[in-house]
């Protein structure tokens, strides 16, 4: 029996119990500590969290934390990815105090740190014996730092992107995955391996609207094709030949060889389809390997290969860089140092070395949150369980270059996003146009014309701020 299989079977009841406990706290959120059955002076810590599988594991394990910290109770607000981004941004940006801790990423962290919206975590880490912030993967640590070089969020996991493919199907078709595939090669493979009679798609790619959904993989394709959102003078480039070619390629690939209903498929939907054997390839986040290799949730364990993110003609690395991380809003500090201390106790527990060990022992080693800590890749059990994909994950994270994401110079940073405040709205608006093209509701040219209009408005504001002559 695969290591971790028996413990994984206990996961769902544990998750259900934890979610029921969280619900009870939600229902009594307005009550004081005494009403919650806590001793006077006890703290309730409210955490806004994204409802991904690794975060479900964290919720399921929180009774361990509460047993070790009887003066702290945790209240989770678990949200879908798009909903979490919207609610957390609205709360933090307006000074709302409903969340003591928030799950954000390397998109928000540097900007919000500069705005003064987040608590500096460096002093808290320094005062936590054994926490070892130097163990964080350097590229992830840098991505979660503010302009002063201090960390303002701590990584729960880190990821890049890669191509997952069915080795058994490739062998049956006489195909060989190159060490570094290109996007045209991937399209050829997808066309060869699509079999509608067998309910099998050649590839799964996100089509769900959202700057962190369809735009994440699509932006890496745009970069690979030599495209960019803006030139150095903030002139929008979404109708340039390079961007048109990239988006038309992506839309055609999804429509011809993607899963049914691709326009509403995000990370979760693609993960389900690929794990159930309904797709021959899947290009997405490296963290997906934990799902794909989990024998409790996947039917393709042992038949999956991992290749670097597909590239364009120039061969530049095109994988993204992302981290789901935990931060403390400044409004928590306004509640007093005791609330910050209680919140940090949980954040440091959930992002610590011992937590990695706990997840592996309880849920199986493929469930360990990857990418955040270098020491994770020194755990013997994890090395064995992740041998098929861990080297690719580490290499992809290391190779990702937020500072130089495109072939031609650009005035922004970020691989699968633009690190500007406007991108949350801009990226979402553009994603809606792309998703509509995937659904066949409009052409790619029509989608990009509208996207160009959105981008021009943002670009003009930066030209005015910087005194740039377009």
Automatic annotation (TrEMBL):
Signal as UniProt keyword: yes
Signal peptide start and end residues: 1-31
Repeat as UniProt keyword: no
Keyword terms, alphabetized: Signal
InterPro entries cross-referenced by the UniProt entry: Bact_solute-bd_prot1, SBP
Gene3D superfamilies, A to Z: Periplasmic binding protein-like II
One Pfam entry name: SBP_bac_1
Stated name of the protein: Sugar ABC transporter substrate-binding protein
Protein's organism: Pseudonocardia kongjuensis
